[in-house]
UniProtKB/TrEMBL annotation:
Keyword Membrane in record: yes
Pfam families for the chain: MFS_1
Domain Major facilitator superfamily (MFS) profile positions: 31-430
Name this polypeptide is given: MFS family permease
UniProt-listed InterPro entries: MFS, MFS_dom, MFS_trans_sf
GO molecular function: transmembrane transporter activity
Gene3D superfamilies: MFS general substrate transporter like domains
Primary site of residence: membrane
Compartments where located: Cell membrane
């Protein structure tokens, strides 16, 4: 059984200086990367493809509104679940360790939720299933994110962060392939990504050396402590606060393209809705390939130089330039070129994002909780951008048809650059 207790008074897993810890073994890094891929395959495949199909099957007359309902409930729970389960993971005294019970248990619960989505015959059942899936997978992701500060020495974090970060994009492509391969089979569309995720995370659980929290050093965990898990004082921990703000602004820029490229292809470039679906898949492939290149290159160079902040600035400049190009182009080839540039900049940012975050955590004893708070900064823009973006059409109305997208992408570029500026105010990381 998993035992969960209060905050540790002393570090259970001391995190010595970067030169004091041996390099993480290759099998751990490989399993960590695979687990990241599997978890995101399980949770992103429904978001990208299969959840919309299930909603259309269950409620064809109200599919748009019903899909919004299902996704919004899941998004809110994802925001709550990450820091909550991160805090619980930090306090787990199970003999299986702090992270492993949440890694494996979260994926089992997530798979159960996906299966409910597959067999549910009403929108409330789909909503319930997706809520369970989000809670489960985010419990896994909370523990998964903490493994980098727990287990990876600083001199390796750029490369590992890059490999882990690019798995989000790889999982999106993998999810699209899975959805196409099992099209028409509702159970398989949900079960296959969940099972792959469970197997990948299971591999990490087998190779991970994970010590439990010290029961004797734990204080009670109540409502007040739970509410504190969503807050890190930015005045006491300024580097953490600046990094949170920088991450939030950069992800606003990233979400401005990923959230609206389908409508852009229809309204600006003139494709039909059916054609746009194929073009989005093509752009996702291009973006993923470029993200992989940027992640590997940025992570390797960052570790060799021992510097993180220059790569954040350069990545923001690259993605900002790409968004400006998207705002101006009127042809698919130029759009794909801009998407490739965008993906490369995104990969550079992901290569140092987690490494930089791990270096500014207020307390290694609460690494999962604090990484969960940081994860709000990249999850929140994915909900806020679709809400705020409809206010931009008036700003671009003078540009003619599709001018609103120019305003959206320029705003995204500016937000990304502001995020890079915020990261420059972090003092404890070069």
């Amino acid at each position: 059984m998993t035992a969960v207790h209060g905050a540790a008074a002393e570090p259970v897993l001391p995190v010595p200086g970067a030169d004091d810890r041996p390099a993480a073994p290759a099998r751990l890094v490989a399993a960590l990367v695979a687990a990241q891929f599997g978890a995101y395959l399980a949770v992103l495949t429904p978001v990208i493809v299969t959840l919309a199909i299930r909603v259309a099957q269950v409620a064809p007359d109200t599919r748009a509104a019903s899909l919004g309902q299902v996704l919004s409930v899941g998004a809110v729970l994802a925001l709550v679940a990450n820091p909550l389960f991160g805090a619980l993971s930090d306090r787990t005294t199970s003999r299986f360790g702090r992270r492993r019970p949440w890694l494996l248990g979260g994926m089992v619960v997530g798979l159960a939720g996906l299966l409910l989505v597959a067999v549910g015959g009403t929108v409330p059942l789909l909503t319930l299933g997706w809520a369970v899936a989000q809670l489960g997978v985010n419990a896994t992701l909370a523990a998964l994110t903490a493994i980098i500060p727990d287990q990876i020495p600083d001199r390796q974090r750029g490369r590992v962060s890059g490999l882990v970060g690019m798995m989000t994009s790889v999982a999106m492509v993998g999810g699209a392939f899975v959805a196409q391969a099992v099209a028409g089979h509702a159970l398989l569309m949900m079960a296959v990504p969940g099972l792959v995720g469970l197997l990948c995370v299971g591999w990490l659980v087998l190779v991970l050396r994970d010590a439990p929290a010290d029961r004797a050093a734990l204080a009670p965990y109540g409502l007040r402590t739970f509410l504190r898990s969503f807050w890190v004082n930015p005045l006491r921990h300024r580097d953490f606060g600046w990094n949170w703000l920088g991450r939030f602004m950069v992800y606003v820029g990233l979400a401005s393209l990923t959230s609206y490229q389908t409508y852009y292809l229809v309204d600006r470039l003139g494709f039909s809705t059916e054609q746009a679906a194929g073009k989005v898949f093509l752009s996702t492939l291009v973006m993923t390939a470029a993200t992989v290149v940027g992640s590997i290159l940025g992570g390797t160079l960052s570790d060799r130089s021992g510097r993180r902040k220059p790569y954040v600035v350069f990545s923001a400049a690259v993605t900002g330039l790409a968004l400006l190009v998207v705002a101006l182009v009127d042809s698919l080839p130029l759009f794909l070129c801009a998407v490739a540039l965008f993906g490369f900049g995104q990969g550079l940012y992901m290569a140092v994002d987690v490494a930089l975050a791990a270096a500014v955590l207020p307390d290694p004893r609460e690494s999962a909780k604090d990484m969960g708070v940081l994860n709000i900064a990249n999850a929140l823009p994915q909900s806020l951008v679709p809400i705020v973006a409809p206010a931009l059409p008036a700003l671009g109305a003078g540009d003619g048809p599709g001018g609103n997208y120019s305003a959206l992408f320029v705003t995204g570029a500016v937000c990304g650059l502001l995020g890079a500026f915020a990261v420059q105010l972090v003092r404890s990381v070069r």
